[in-house]
Amino acid sequence: MFIKSANAGEDGKTVKSVSLSDGNTLDADVVILGTGVRPNTKWLEGSGIELDKQGGLVCDPFMQTNVKDIFAAGDIASIPYWPTGSRTRIEHWVVALEQGTNAAWNMMDKFVPYSGIPFFWTRHYNKSLQFIGNNAVGYSEVVVKGKMDKHKFLAYYINDKDQVVAVAGMGKPKAMLTLLTAMEQNLMPVGSLIKSGREKPASIKLKLKQNVGGGKCKRANCCQKKSVVA
Questions:
Q1: N or C, where is the chain less crowded by C-beta within 10 Å?
Q2: Looking at the DSSP assignment, which residues form a beta bridge with residue 129?
Q3: Rg of the chain over CA atoms, in angstroms?
Q4: Cα 30 to Cα 12, 24, 25, 67, 124, distances in angstroms
Q5: Rounded Cα distance, 69 and 192, in Å
Q6: pLDDT tens digits for 115-157?
Q7: Is the dihedral of CA 218, 219, 220, 221 positive or negative?
Q8: pLDDT band at residue 49 under the 50/70/90 scheme
Q9: Which DSSP symbol is given to 40?
Q10: Topology of domain 49-107, per CATH?
């Protein structure tokens, strides 16, 4: 569901409501439009480096462009997103840090593909909203488990292939870490099992425990964090 259009007031200068894609209309005094950004890569046109329609540098899983020894990372990098097979750009500093690390490894011929799952968060009025995955690759349904009015819930974004492509959560930090690990290890159950209640974070955590070695950190000696499934 998304905003289809904003409806102007009688003076033609103010907004009175917004129409949603599901046919409903919501009263509104103010509409905040998040238009996003485009990478400033126009200067690379004609360089031989392949750009996508949005101006992103088309990279392989090793963060290398179509030009040998030219790598990209962060907001400008268009990468094959392994959980879905589609291409995406992810504009977040954590992703840029991770991709930059992979690019550096591969500049040294380590051949380490980027396989990260995006993890975002924001905090307002002492409430944290966490988000894992990438719903920009497309979803057809959102299944909410919990109580949104109590600020304690998990919202699963499910595509038309019954795949959970993203999860938003509030007041469920441990569950979100479990679900992040499940996505990283390709052990996230299909959406229909989540929707029916046959699979929950607790049952997913049990499967993760059975995946011996699956939660091992890929960056040797970088930290002393314990596995979330221990």
A1: C
A2: 122, 170
A3: 20
A4: 14, 17, 14, 46, 19
A5: 44
A6: 999 999 999 889 999 999 998 888 999 999 999 999 999 999 9
A7: negative
A8: very high
A9: S
A10: FAD/NAD(P)-binding domain (3.50.50)
